[in-house]
Amino acid sequence: MKIKFGKKLLFSLKKVIIVITVMVTVIGLSASAFRTNNDGETVTREKLDKIDSVASLAAFEKVYKVLMSPRCMNCHPAGDIPLQGDDSHIHTMSPMRGKDGKGVYAMKCSNCHQPSNSPGLRTPPGNPKWGLPPADMKMVFEGKSARELALQIMDYKQNGHKNKAKLIEHARDTLVKAGWNMGEGRKPPPLAYKDFVEAWDEWINNGGIAPKN
Amino acid sequence: MLKLNINKKNYELNIDPDTPLLWVLRDVIGLVGTKYGCGVAQCGACVVHLNGEAVRSCVTKVSRAAGQQVVTIEGLSVNNDHPLQKAWLELDVSQCGYCQAGQIMSAAVLLNENKNPTDKDINNAMEGNICRCGTYLRIHQAIHLAAEIQRKGSK
């Protein structure tokens, strides 16, 4: 009698284990079709299928060349002094970044950099927003590999707290755009502005994939 | 017609808005204390205050100053008794003197924002002001002295 009861119990236990295993598998499979991204937006498997990582990587290759060109990199230096010129030398007069990226004391960016370009060769280029990234988030480009820079840009905690929409918007920022209008004698970035924006969008809309190195 | 306020005095000028502020100060209004050095914002001889900031008037279009407060070396103090001016005289800082108005105007912004600057703060503030006579050491000393005068004056 006792043996019969034991067998019955074992059989019921097996049943329970099978049911639990099936449930966990079903839940797991359906959950894997959803992910939550930085924006708190749920990315469905359907959406993931639309992401073209090859296109994303190809687009970033173009983007990287622009970001590492003097017109962009000079104001994203590794140190606290901006770079200057087509050879990205340290800015003469050594103006310091300051807390907000707008310089310090009598050496604030806007003291020389006017709201628009000054006429003539070797005069300060201008924009109302002229400055470096702030001291608490330096967003360094100088010295970064393509992978490092892609990961940094896509990281909300390192990119100036920009979600996907803000990143897309950033390429349209007037200061970014000013990179293609830097006054007389300065070489523009290696891609036309329109093509840069197109590559930027394609990279980000396809997942902002970072290259392997 | 462009409305300017320079050293607390109002002016209405019929002038090309792209004219550099320095030209207006010197050639139109006759305030010649501010000097022309390089004309491309590289030397600091032309520094004046625009709403309290040390702008380089040789590259600042006069239109940027319209309706704003401009202060030149002539307007830094009523009786030439700004702590920096006192310190400059005390230590006999100037040699040829050409760059000194710009030096003092830049230093004034520093002292306004930092009452007790270190040597590093002074370097960071004054790197853009060039002195061909090499009076940098005396400029440093004078800024420290002016900071002291300013602190004592505010007690």
Give an overview of the whole structure.
The complex is a heterodimer of chains A (213) and B (155). Chain A is mainly α and 213 residues long. Chain A has helices at 2-32, 45-50, 53-67, 70-73, 109-112, 146-154, 164-170, 174-177, 193-205, and strands at residues 34-36, 42-44, 83-84, 89-90, 103-104, 107-108. The longest helix of chain A is centred in the N-terminal third of the chain and has 31 residues, at 2-32. The model of chain A is unreliable at 28-36 (pLDDT under 50). In chain A, the strands form 3 sheets. A two-stranded antiparallel ribbon of chain A has the order 1-2. Chain A folds into 2 domains: 2-32; 52-205, no CATH class. By secondary structure, chain B is of the alpha+beta class. Chain B folds into 2 domains: 2-75, Ubiquitin-like (UB roll), CATH 3.10.20.30; 83-153, DNA polymerase, domain 1, CATH 1.10.150.120. Chain B has a 5-stranded mixed sheet with strand order 2-1-5-3-4, covered by helices on one side. In chain B, a hairpin with a 2-residue loop joins strand 3 (47-50) and strand 4 (53-56). The longest helix of chain B has 18 residues, at 136-153. The mean pLDDT of chain B is 97. At the A-B interface, strand 6 and helix 5 of A face strand 4, helix 4 and helix 5 of B.
Features:
heterodimer; A: 213 residues; mainly alpha; two-stranded antiparallel ribbon; two-stranded antiparallel sheet; 6 strands; 7% strand; elongated; B: 155 residues; alpha+beta; Ubiquitin-like (UB roll); DNA polymerase, domain 1; five-stranded mixed β-sheet; globular
Give a short overview.
The complex is a heterodimer of chains A (about 210) and B (about 160). With about 210 residues, chain A is mainly α. Chain A contains nine helices and six strands.
